[in-house]
Amino acid sequence: MPTRDRLLALFVVVLWGLNFIAMHPMLDHFPPLFAGALRFAVIAVPTILFIPRPKVKLRWLLGFGLGFGTGQFAFLFLALTHGMPTGLASLVLQASAPFTVLLGGIFLREPLSARQLTGILAAVAGMGVIAWHRAENAVLMPVVLTLLGALCWAAGNLCSRQARPENPIHFTLWMSVIPPIPMFALSTIFEGPAVQWHSLATLGTGEGLLGLAGFSYVVLVGTVLGSSVWTVLMRRNPANVVAPFSLLVPVVGMSAAFFVLDETPALVEVLAGLVVVAGVLFGSLPRRQRSAEALLVSS
């Protein structure tokens, strides 16, 4: 992997880590489900107008949009709104990696190696410690919501894998067309039109401007810029070389939360988080092959 691409990967890691910080003022102003609907709606409109629809089966596009888009961010935004620490959320979402491996084994009959199983068990153990510690402090529900978001992300990964799009960027952009309608519907039912309208009518206030700034970062920087650069890196380099860089996102997220939001995680959560990241990394390492060509084929 060229040095230029390594620097670009680190650049994306920083963008995505700070994305969690930007969500904080956004969710302070917008109700969570409404924020999710707006986030994807502002991407969906220009996508429909200017981007050709990818030639994939509709069921995989719908599955990717409902899993990666609707489910992941509905649960994540609800978790952050109900007390999930921002930095810890960036870590717990890494559960999507072992969830993806498990779902792939169950539904796609992909073989599960001893290395992957060991990594999954380590990650699950780390998550279990975090959940136990949070339960001791009566704040288990936000962790559960975040884990549900990670599970939805994993389900979306399987749909993306089955779709096999020729242009991943177009596929990712068209995914944004799916979430707005179900998220608007859920927001209308559970948050109400009055709350939705109030968040829009008060955009000119101090809190509203901060919320709009956070919203703009999440959409333009975290989603459009970050995802586009990452997709390019995945096309230019082996996936098993690029993917481990994403494990640095919680490092940036938790560090930024410490300095910006004054969040100080408990030592047991930090140690459990290291076990989670180590487990995900260990499970994602490629199998040893007799030749470099075989390694390339397997990845």
From TrEMBL:
How is this protein situated with respect to the membrane?
A: Multi-pass membrane protein
User: What is a single Pfam family found in this protein's UniProt entry?
Assistant: EamA
Name the UniProt key words of this record, in alphabetical order: Membrane, Transmembrane, Transmembrane helix
SUPFAM superfamilies tied to this protein: Multidrug resistance efflux transporter EmrE
Superkingdom per UniProt: Bacteria
Q: What is its main location?
A: membrane
Q: Does the keyword Transmembrane helix apply?
A: yes
The keyword Transmembrane is assigned to this record? yes
Q: Where is the EamA domain?
A: 7-130, 142-282
Compartments in which it is found = Membrane
Per the UniProt record, which residue ranges are transmembrane? 7-27, 33-51, 58-80, 86-108, 117-133, 139-159, 171-190, 210-234, 241-260, 266-285
Tell me which family the UniProt entry assigns to this protein. Answer: Belongs to the EamA transporter family.
Instruction: Output the PANTHER family linked to this UniProt entry.
Output: AMINO-ACID METABOLITE EFFLUX PUMP-RELATED, INNER MEMBRANE TRANSPORTER
Name of the molecule in the record: EamA family transporter
Which species is the source of this protein? Amycolatopsis thermalba
Lineage summary: Bacteria, Bacillati, Actinomycetota, Actinomycetes, Pseudonocardiales
